[in-house]
Specification:
Bound molecules: NADP nicotinamide-adenine-dinucleotide phosphate
Number of helices: 9
Structural class: alpha/beta
Helix content: 40-55%
Strand content: 15-25%
Number of domains: 1
Shape: globular
Radius of gyration: 19 Å
Distance between the termini: 33 Å
Order of helices and strands: EHEHEHEHEEHEEEHEEHEHH
CATH architecture: 3-Layer(aba) Sandwich
Largest sheet: 6 strands, parallel
CATH class: Alpha Beta
CATH superfamily: NAD(P)-binding Rossmann-like Domain
CATH topology: Rossmann fold
């Protein structure tokens, strides 16, 4: 059975729905089984027939983390260490989700899984240390790094843009940060496919894998695409001008990576998947958007 940790978050909710739709047995937990409490994890694991654990729980408030390092580290580093140890003791395989923030974003070509990590803020550094803790504590691990995640559930860039576009005459969006938008539904499908392949005959070596939507854009270009699709699908009630700006115009506590494109060559070849273009996924997502 699969134990989905963090089942009420953005990715966790998407995975829950997909597992249900596919009639795959799983049990989901969120804050009620606290990942910072090793005994709670052990107790839960010992009373359920778990052979896969997926960890979607995390501290994801990137700016807030700068003033809240202890709590962030507890969730993003100690939590994964505890989960990995519980998985090891149970003999379960672990899928742990990580982030492009493990890199500093000063590169000029897509980051591979082998590139040295170099996080700049608290969130990135606690997530990188969480990866190391998983590797140290459980030999049967898959770490999937993703980026620019959006989906139906929870706050994310697409929801924020649609709301602002419906409220304002004009919005400015940064045009000097590059990345790859990722629909949580696509990532959830890949996670399920990974488990099915490993449970079947296909040998997928443990290790780190990168997964995002295919292609690269800036946040401004992402916003432009949201506007164009939103308009054609009647999700917008009035015109709004989307203008480019620089990161310097948007001071934030944490410097965002200027270039956070992840190389997915390894993932595509080993997991035998075709990754949808980010703008195709955005269209599919918005086609199912109900404005609620
Ligand atoms: N969002 C992105 O753009 C993005 C990008 C790259 C990578 N990622 C990674 O992708 C993964 C999923 O992200 P997400 O956006 O789906 O996260 P999310 O929506 O913030 O969900 C995290 C879940 O963990 C729960 N949680 C908090 N503390 C917990 C605890 N002590 N024990 C158990 N559960 C706890 C949260 O509950 P509360 O809501 O009550 O706190 C929430 O339901 C994370 O590893 C994240 O680092 C995300």
């Amino acid at each position: 059975m699969i134990w989905l940790i963090g089942n009420k978050g953005m990715l966790g909710t998407e995975l829950s729905l997909l597992l249900e739709q596919n009639n795959i047995p799983f049990i989901g937990t969120d804050r009620e089984v606290d990942i910072t409490d090793p005994a709670a994890l052990r107790d839960f694991a010992s009373s359920h027939p778990v052979n896969w654990i997926i960890n979607c729980a995390a501290y994801t408030a990137v700016d807030k983390a700068e003033d809240d390092e202890v709590a962030c580290r507890l969730l993003n580093t100690s939590g994964p260490a505890n989960i990995a140890a519980a998985a090891r003791d149970k003999g379960a395989r672990l899928i742990h989700i990580s982030t492009d923030y493990v890199f500093d974003g000063t590169g000029n070509r897509p980051y591979t899984e082998e590139d040295a990590t170099c996080p700049t803020g608290v969130y990135g550094s606690t997530k990188r240390d969480g990866e190391l803790a998983v590797i140290e504590n459980n030999p049967h691990f898959y770490i999937i790094r993703t980026a620019w995640l959006y989906g139906k559930h929870g706050n994310n860039f697409v929801h924020t843009m649609l709301r602002l576009m419906n409220e304002r005459e004009e919005i400015k969006v940064v045009h000097d940060q590059y990345g790859s938008p990722t629909w949580a539904f696509d990532l959830a499908q890949v996670i399920i496919s990974l488990m099915q392949q490993v449970d079947g005959t296909h040998n997928i070596p443990c290790g780190i894998y990168h997964y995002t939507g295919e292609g690269t854009c800036t946040w401004f270009e992402f916003a432009q695409a949201i506007y164009a699709e939103g308009k054609s699908l009647n999700l917008l009630t009035k015109p709004c001008t989307v203008k480019p700006c620089t990161s310097a115009e948007y001071p934030a506590k944490v410097k965002r990576p200027a270039y956070s494109v992840l190389d997915k060559t390894k993932t595509k070849s080993i997991m035998r998947i075709i990754i949808p273009a980010w703008n195709d996924s955005l269209r599919s997502f918005l086609q199912g958007h109900d404005n609620s």
